[in-house]
Design a protein that fits this description.
With about 220 residues, the protein is mostly helical. The protein is built from eleven helices and no strands. The termini are far apart.
Length: about 220
């Protein structure tokens, strides 16, 4: 295992397409729910403990060697909104391209063949982490961090928020990030004996509702 691979995977410049997505921040800014660093922190904490927790469990399970097709079905079941399923698979397809170029492996090839239109992004990220020799906990950290760094970066563009303030928000969420990554990895350990029902299934109804609304906007800065 090379821990340096985690830095590559979690780097915002890794060409996995995340820069085009706000993680729900764009509609939240438009609705006035995000208007400064304090409200951004509130949004990111809520997202981390819901969508981020679900993603952490899926990614950790994929990195642990669980069947990625079963995990992809579990991700579908935890993503009730068509707009978010579409985005998750679109991001998964882009992540797959980047992962196969960076850490080629038979497991990635097999998933790409089985899901040519894209598997859910956390599943692909977890399999990429496995191909890179990383641990399930590493995969959980990478995907959980992405779930808050994306909205924080988007808020800088949407609000002209000071980048230092946005980075401070991420730093203040460090303990929450630890908690979510560890919970995701612990759930993944139980999948072998309990099946995918052991994975988190936290919901964020407001994120779901605004994702559907945002998908219908005629003009938008971000894809999601």
């Amino acid at each position: 295992m090379s821990r340096a691979a985690l830095l590559v995977l979690a780097d915002g410049r890794f060409p996995a397409g995340g820069h085009a997505h706000s993680g729900g921040a764009e509609p939240a800014v438009t609705a006035g729910r995000i208007k400064d660093a304090a409200t951004l922190e509130h949004f990111c904490r809520g997202r981390l403990h819901t969508a981020g927790l679900v993603a952490a469990g899926l990614a950790a399970a994929a990195a642990a060697g669980c069947d990625p097709l079963l995990l992809d079905d579990a991700a579908d079941a935890r993503t009730p909104v068509p707009a978010l399923r579409l985005i998750a698979r679109r991001l998964g397809r882009q992540m797959m391209r980047a992962a196969r170029a960076t850490w080629p492996g038979a497991e990635l090839d097999a998933l790409a063949a089985a899901r040519p239109r894209g598997a859910h992004q956390p599943v692909v990220l977890g399999l990429a982490a496995r191909s890179a020799g990383l641990t399930p906990l590493d995969a959980a950290y990478a995907v959980a961090y992405e779930n808050i760094s994306g909205p924080a970066t988007a808020a800088v563009r949407l609000l002209s928020l000071d980048p230092f303030d946005a980075t401070a928000v991420l730093a203040r969420l460090a303990a929450d990030l630890d908690q979510v990554a560890e919970a995701g990895a612990e759930a993944a350990r139980r999948v072998a004996t309990e099946g995918t029902d052991a994975l988190p299934a936290a919901s964020a109804p407001l994120l779901d509702i605004t994702a559907e609304q945002h998908a219908a906007w005629p003009v938008r800065l971000f894809a999601s």
